[in-house]
Amino acid sequence: MAAYGPELAANEAAFLGTDPPVSVTKINGVAFKHVRFEGRDLLLFPSGMSMVNAAMTTQLALDRFPISHVLFAGIAGGIDPAHRIGDVVIADKWFHHSEAAYLNPKPDGSGYVKPEYLRPPYENFGFMFPDHVWTVRDGMEEPQRQPFFSADPSLLEAAKRAVATVPPMTYAGREVQVTVGGNGISGPVFMDNREYRKWAFRVWKAGCLDMESTAIAQVCWANQKPFLIVRSLSDLAGGQDGVNAADSTEGPVSHLAASVVRDVVRQLR
C-alpha cells in the first residue's frame, strides 16, 4: 500500500519496473494492481490520503482479495530530533494522536473542565487531551480502550534481516538511518508546528508522524491480519526553519521506503 502519487510511483518502480501488472481491478474508483514479483503475488493499491480513506480502503481490500499480509511504504514527518530527512522508520507500535477531547478552560485559569468519562492517559497540549480509541474484534465481548496497535513480529524480524543485508542507502549526500522498532503516531492532520512536534515526541517518543498508518494498523488488528509500515522522512513536521520541505523531498524519499519494503518481501519465509 501507499497513500498517494509519489509513494505509489515508488512502489510501482520497486515491484513492477517497466512491466505491466498481471491485472487491474477497479472497485469504488480504486485501482488494485495484481503484480507478480519474484514468485510472489502482490497487490499494489493506494490507501488514499488521511485516516478515513486509509481505513476505508484497507477494509475494502481485505474484504475483496485473499490478502495474507499488509505492507505499506510511504513518507512521514520526523518528530524525533535524532532523525533527519531521508531516514527510514519501521515502528512496531502505532498510536493515534488526534483521538482527543477538546476542553474549555476553567474560569479561574487553574486547568480545564473535564467530562466525567475522561481519564486522560497522556499529557495535554493546551485544550487538546489525547485519548485511547475504543475497538472491538472477534473474540471480544465488548469494545475496549486500545492504546496502540502492534506490527507483526515476523514481519519486524524480516525487516531486521533486510536492513542487515541490503547495501547502505543515501539521501542528500549522507547515509540514511534505518530504525526498526519504536513508536509511530498518526492523525488526520498535516502537522507542521514546532511546539506540537516537541510535545508529541515527549508524549509518545515516536520516530515519525503521518496521516494513515494507525488507521491501517487498526483495521489490520480488527481483521487479525499481520501488517508492517515503513516510512521514510520527507520533512521534520515543523522542526525546520522556514517552509516545510516535503514538496521537494517526497519523491526521492518515497523510493527509500519502497526499497526497504521490497527487501522485506524478499525476506519473507
Structure annotation, total helices: 6
**Spatial order of the strands in the main sheet?**
11-6-15-16-4-17-5-14
- DSSP helix fraction: 25-40%
- Provide the CATH architecture: 3-Layer(aba) Sandwich
Average residue-wise pLDDT: 97
Structural class: alpha/beta
Q: What general outline do the C-alpha atoms trace?
A: globular
Question: What is the number of strand segments?
Answer: 17
Largest sheet: 8 strands, mixed
The CATH class is Alpha Beta
Spatial separation of the terminal alpha carbons: 20 Å
Number of domains: 1
Q: What fold name goes in the CATH topology slot?
A: Rossmann fold
CATH homologous superfamily caption = Nucleoside phosphorylase domain
| Rg, Cα atoms, Å | 19 Å
- The H/E string reads HEEEHEEEEEEEEHEEEEHEHEH
Parts with pLDDT < 50 across at least 5 consecutive residues? none
Query: What fraction of residues sit in β-strands?
Result: 25-35%
Summarize it.
The chain is α/β, with parallel strands linked by helices. Helix content is 30%, strand content 27%.
